[in-house]
Write a structure and sequence with these properties.
Helix content: 40-55%
Number of strands: 6
Number of domains: 1
Number of helices: 3
Largest sheet: 6 strands, antiparallel
Shape: elongated
Strand content: 15-25%
Radius of gyration: 29 Å
Amino acid sequence: MAREKQSGFSLIEVSIALGVVTFAAVSILGLLPTGLVVMRDAMNQTVESQIVRSIAGQSVVANFANLTDGSPFYFDDEGQRILKAEDSVYTVSLSGTTPIYPGSTNAGGSLSTSLVNLRIEIVERRGQQPVGITKLRTIQVANYGK
């Protein structure tokens, strides 16, 4: 009696295919933590940019002395300004200095009242504990006679 040839995969072929699929899955899962860290950093940079943009907009219409009086500003996780420190994710401190331009003879005169270097210090917090490093940003703001 002649043996009929049966079609299908052998045990060796199935084992090799499972090994290749497992290797690919483990490689992809190994990239997840890196992807999550990069995504969190990108979100933080986006929120910090929104905070700087908000402060820059407010500084154009406000008096410099009111902005840099030492009281901190509080922002939530979406970059929106809030009033309570306990609900904040970001604490922002501002300080202003007169810009110094090399070779300028009137740096101490009209520039001191019409232009300021605004130093923005952003600290990420959860409650009262700092989470990340302090980020520093500097912008120049015109006073427009305020």
